[in-house]
Amino acid sequence: MRQLILDTETTGISPESGHRVIEIGVVEIVDRRLTGNDYQTYLNPDRKIDPATIPIHGITDDFVSNKPKFSEVISEFIDYIEGSEVIMHNAPFDSSFINKELELLGYKDRLEDLCEITDSLTLAREKHPGQRNSLDALINRYEVDGTSRDVHGALIDAKLLARVYLLMTGGQVGFFSNEDKDDKGIHASNETFDYSNRKIINATPSKDQKEAHKAYLEKLTKASNKKLNW
C-alpha cells in the first residue's frame, strides 16, 4: 500500500484572500516503511509573503523569487501523488491551498479527485480525545526527535508527521529504513536540498511585530477550527 505524508508552507492563511503555496513536501510510505522516495519543491507564488508568517517557516520573498511556479511542477506533482492515500495534518488547510492552485490553472480535478485523503489530526483526536493534538504535541507524546527543526518546513514537517503517524497507527518502532535509523531524527530531510542556501530571517522583532505575529497565530487557530467543523 502506498501512502504519502504531505505538508505545505504558504504565504498566509487564506487561499481565498489570494495567498499561495511556497513549499510542498511529501514523504512516501510503502507497506509502513519510509522509502526515501520523497518529493519536495519550493515555489514562486507571484505575490509577497505575509511578514507575519516568515518567523514560522523562515522562507523569504528573495528566496522564492527564482523558484519555479506551480504551473511548472504541476505535472510531476500529480504524477507523484495520483492514486495514493495522502495523509495531512489538518487536511482541509493544505487541501484548500492545493485546490486553489489547481483552480488557478484551470484544472477541473481537485486533490480529492486525484487521491484518497486522510486527516491525521482527526485520527489523533479520536485516539487522544481532550488532549492537544497539534504536530508539536504529537511529536512530544510519541517521543519523535525534532530537535533539529528550527523553523517549520514542508518536507521537515512531513518527515516528522510520517514518524508520528506510523507510531500512532501501529505502535511499532521497526518500520523506519536503515538510513532513517542512523540519521538521528530528521537529519535525512537534508537529502533533497541544501539548507545553507535557505535565507532565514534572524532578527529581534519590534513590539508591533510581536503583536502582529500573536494576532496571526490566533487567526490561524480560529481558521483551522472552523475548517475542521465542516
Describe this structure as you would to a colleague.
It is a single chain. The protein has helices spanning 54-57, 61-64, 70-81, 91-104, 111-114, 120-127, 135-141, 154-170, 178-181, 207-228, and strands at 2-10, 21-30, 33-34, 39-42, 85-88, 116-119. Strands 1, 2, 3, 4, 5 and 6 form a six-stranded mixed beta sheet that branches. It has one domain: Ribonuclease H-like superfamily/Ribonuclease H (Nucleotidyltransferase, domain 5). Strand 2 (21-30) and strand 3 form a beta hairpin. By secondary structure, the chain is an alpha/beta fold.
List the helices and strands and how they pair.
Elements: E1 2-10, E2 21-30, E3 33-34, E4 39-42, H1 54-57, H2 61-64, H3 70-81, E5 85-88, H4 91-104, H5 111-114, E6 116-119, H6 120-127, H7 135-141, H8 154-170, H9 178-181, H10 207-228
